[in-house]
Amino acid sequence: MQHVKIPQERIGVLIGEGGETMREIEAEAEVRLDIDSENGSVAVETVGDPVRGLKGPEIVRAIGRGFPPEDALRLLDDEMMLFDVVDIDAASRNKNDMKRQKGRLIGEAGRTRELMEELSGASVVIYGSTLGMIGTPEQVEAVRSAAEMLLDGAPHGAVYSFLEERHNEMKHQGMEYHRFPGSQS
Q1: pLDDT for 56-84, tens place per residue?
Q2: Quick one: 88 and 32 in the same domain?
Q3: Which CATH number belongs to the domain containing residue 35 in this structure?
Q4: Which residues contact 32 (CB under 8 A, 6 or more apart)?
Q5: Following DSSP, what letter does each residue of 108-158 receive, concatenated?
Q6: Is the pLDDT of residue 86 over 50?
Q7: Domain limits at 70?
Q8: What average pLDDT does the chain have?
């Protein structure tokens, strides 16, 4: 059994309307969730396939970091799917700097975050002081590198060029990618 702590405001998302999301996660990941809504602690116990069960805590963590449940459940699509987080706070000197850094990652009207998703094929969420990503190792690495470039002060244009280059490499290698994460294209 593993314990995962998530923000209290994300507990409702994890449970879902009438417990629907929680039951779906339990069925798909073959785990049992014991959610303490008082302190945001979630006990994840594997009840079926141990390999699928390993993804249970990751799914809960991803929802806690701002992902919608359907994106978090993508972790079960393939054993190669990863969930990773970049700590924006660690790259910031103070609260104002963190706001600025988050703004750089989100971009005007969310365009930078959208491009990270579009060009990498990963799902990307900026929530609290973290940037979370779900995708294959190559997709996650592309987003992590782009985020680190932005946090290090690289111009947006250079980061977009980097992402386009990685997108073309992945496409050229015949890697599975899709234009808009979450869409059926």
Answers
A1: 999 999 999 999 999 999 999 988 899 99
A2: no
A3: 3.30.1370.10
A4: 26, 44, 45, 47
A5: GGGHHHHHHHHHH--EEEEETTEEEEEE-HHHHHHHHHHHHHHHTT--HHH
A6: yes
A7: 2-76
A8: 91
d(CA 97, CA 179): 32
Edge to edge, what strands does the sheet with 123-127 contain? Answer: 82-87, 130-135, 123-127
Q: How far apart (Å, rounded) are the C-alpha atoms in residues 68 and 123? A: 10
Q: How far apart are CA 103 and CA 46, in angstroms?
A: 39
Residue 173: band (very low, low, confident or very high) from pLDDT cuts 50, 70, 90 = confident
Q: Dmax of the chain from CA atoms?
A: 49
Task: Please list the residues that pair with 86 across neighbouring strands.
Answer: 131
CA 15 – CA 82 distance, rounded (Å): 22
Are 124 and 68 found together in one domain? no
Of 97, 158, 85, the residue nearest 124 (C-alpha): 85
CA-CA distance, 156 to 81, in Å (whole number)? 27
DSSP per residue, 72-91: HGGGGS-TT-EEEEEETGGG
The Cα angle at residue 148 between residues 130 and 132, in degrees rounded to 5: 30
In this structure, is residue 183 part of a structural domain? no
